[in-house]
Design goal:
Elements: H1 2-11, H2 13-28, E1 31-32, E2 35-36, H3 39-51, H4 59-109, H5 114-125, H6 128-139
């Protein structure tokens, strides 16, 4: 029975996504003493477990859920963004300037590949939009 289930998830990766969300939400409800895992951690754990059976979602499905993730992050933090820029905009801009300098020096002085430069900046800044740019450069 287990092999049938694994084959079904491999042939229909959208079912794996739905199961990951469902199991993740259930895992997130668990409490370890006084600590609740939460839905986000639960989905990450369920995704790591289900991902071990070799489910390969299509690139369209990955793109859809990545864009949905970005939209939901923006929807949740959007109103706070503008108030944050007014109160602490200069320190955030000061953090971007070294990344910009690194990109320019790496590209024009050391002639580095744009994908490597974007990977360095997305890793250093832990930026999801930068990661999307790296994936687009890697595809081309």
């Amino acid at each position: 029975m287990w092999s049938w289930f694994v084959d079904m998830l491999r042939s229909h990766p959208e079912m794996a996504v739905v199961l990951t969300l469902g199991f993740g939400y259930a895992i997130g409800k668990l409490r370890l003493g006084t600590v609740a895992l939460g839905a986000v951690v639960g989905v990450l754990i369920a995704g790591a477990i289900i991902g071990q059976i070799g489910v390969k979602p299509s690139s369209d499905l990955k793109t859809l859920f990545f864009l949905l993730f970005l939209f939901l992050i923006g929807y949740r933090t959007g109103p706070q963004f503008f108030s944050g820029v007014r109160s602490s905009g200069f320190p955030q801009i000061a953090l971007i300037v070294p990344q910009l300098i690194t990109l320019l020096v790496g590209r024009f002085v050391f002639r580095m590949h744009p994908g490597i430069l974007l990977g360095v900046c997305s890793g250093a800044g832990t930026s999801a939009p930068s990661l999307a740019a790296v994936q687009e450069v890697a595809r081309s």
